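Fold it.
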Amino acid sequence: MPSPQESLSRIEAKNRPDRQSKKVEYLSIPYKSVVRFSVTSAGHFDLDAEPKLRTSGMSTPVQKTFSTAVNLYEVQALLAEYVGCRG
């Protein structure tokens, strides 16, 4: 279990390919490795909007789908705060 300090410096995601699967993928990316990010949506009320993270050391972007219970605009604001404030 990561300490609160560690979780503030990393993006952590849990992914289960399907509901019947027992396999679970855990992804942990340090904010300092995120080079840029984007959020793709079809419009203001698009519930299928997905963020894409481009990280150093990975040739393809990391793309995650969130449930509708997650406010994607808050996720985007957090990414902007932690990724965009380096300099």
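Residues 72-84 form the longest helix (13 residues).
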